[in-house]
Amino acid sequence: MYNTNHNSKQPILLSELSRFLVIDKAILESLDQALYRLVIEVDQQQYYVLEKKGKSLTRRSVVAIQELLTPFTIANMYLSHQSPYDEMIGHEVNSNSNEMLVQIGDYFENTRDATVH
Description:
By secondary structure, the protein is mostly beta strands.
């Protein structure tokens, strides 16, 4: 399943994704109303994607992130959401994840370049 510990993820620049022949998972994390951050997984290692050093790649729509991924081969794409509800009502934060992970379609699937980058 998806590892929710942000500290175990390694940073990677968007421009460096071409070093992977296949990205096993693209996980679009829902952060706030209409704000999404990209995490990828390759060979069971997760990476949070940066636009530039020190700046996470975020967009206001799922489709905007999918469009950035068109040059790459993506095996599976997911939308992830974690609710802050327990924290909001004063419950202790525990190690149980309330993450919802849903496999989503790829809006640009038919336009992806079939060549290896």
